[in-house]
């Protein structure tokens, strides 16, 4: 049977892994797909690298637009990244009637609505399993495996860099800055780690999963995003003493008034499986009405894990290449004309529990003032630690875990606590989720 011809845009880490795995497992992949899948042209600005990886087996060019316009190519794999030229290339490939496979979560989170609409109009597919959680087949699970369910919420550790940093801070008691430098030395963090440590990368991935879970359009700009750069080793230690671990979570939850969409450091009970995901690994916990809780765990990045997801999309597109477009699985799981306009809730309307740490003067009445402020706002205390001050010091830490309340109420309480004369500096606030 005639092979499916693939044009590969970008042959860096993931592109090189895709080329390697596709070549190594060619016979097995052909048995699954029903016909051979072959990369026939590669585009990369670094021609020497491209020629080295390709090993003279395929045509190499530094003009990516030549690939998306090549009439011999059936599927374009976009692994360039970013919002700029990648968007132009993807839309041009679609315009030329080519299917697209991409690992570009930023592109889809911001421009996915436009890209999927163009693909639907042209009758082509856009595969993006590799855009979220590397080699974990979470898109397939949400879009197809859980199709019978009304998904209630999902929570994910979906950035390996931040999970590595938090694991090292907990294990070694080191500061954020010290662990970040180590992560950069080991290659887990980029020279400019902003996208990872400030939660932007996780927010891109969460936006894609929320769209599929709830059948809503991409709305990246409405997500609440908070990173881990302000976390202190003391908070990780106190959380541990209280039976919790801190993870950067992406959380989306269906509520009566709308959908929560948030990324932030989160206390999770240490007994939860997801709380024990360490190092650079990823995990996504999904709660649905029929199946209950399901957990998806694995490598969230790397050459071959991500290549695994890219090739899975290539196989799916190959199987459905000649199928009636109306009978394919919709990009966002729900039929395009049945997407919901349910709003994304502002963070002030979100309900969760809180970890509050405050540095206070060690004198009578301070704790009573703090608890009275909480009581006046009808916020209950779940647990509390009051540390003994070090010898010769007149200051100490008070740590409080609250029951669930609205973020707006927590903001008011924190403002009143910080206004107390005996409270020194800002209150450290970390949200808490039981994930039951």
Structure, explained:
This protein has about 425 residues and is an alpha/beta fold. The chain folds into three domains: about 5-135 and about 305-340, NAD(P)-binding Rossmann-like Domain (Rossmann fold); about 140-300, Dihydrodipicolinate Reductase, domain 2 (2-Layer Sandwich), CATH 3.30.360; about 350-430, Alpha-Beta Plaits, CATH 3.30.70. It is about 35% helix and about 25% strand. It is built from 15 helices and 17 strands. The strands form two sheets. Strands 7, 8, 9, 10, 11, 12, 13, 14, 15, 16 and 17 form an eleven-stranded mixed beta sheet that branches. It has a six-stranded parallel beta sheet with strand order 3-2-1-4-5-6, with helices on both faces. Strand 9 and strand 10 (about 260-270) form a beta hairpin. The longest helix has 18 residues, at about 105-120.
Q: What brief labels describe this structure?
A:
six-stranded parallel beta sheet; 3 domains; 436 residues; alpha/beta; eleven-stranded mixed beta sheet; Rossmann fold; 15 helices; Alpha-Beta Plaits; Dihydrodipicolinate Reductase, domain 2; elongated
Topology:
Elements: E1 4-9, H1 13-24, H2 26-33, E2 37-43, H3 47-54, E3 59-61, H4 64-68, E4 75-78, H5 85-95, E5 99-102, H6 105-122, E6 126-127, H7 138-145, E7 151-157, H8 160-172, H9 176-186, H10 194-197, H11 200-214, E8 224-225, H12 233-241, E9 244-255, E10 258-269, E11 281-288, E12 292-299, H13 303-319, E13 351-361, H14 366-376, E14 381-386, E15 395-402, E16 405-406, H15 407-418, E17 423-432
Parallel strand pairs: 1-2, 1-4, 2-3, 4-5, 5-6, 8-10, 10-17
Antiparallel strand pairs: 7-9, 7-11, 9-10, 11-12, 13-15, 13-16, 13-17, 14-15
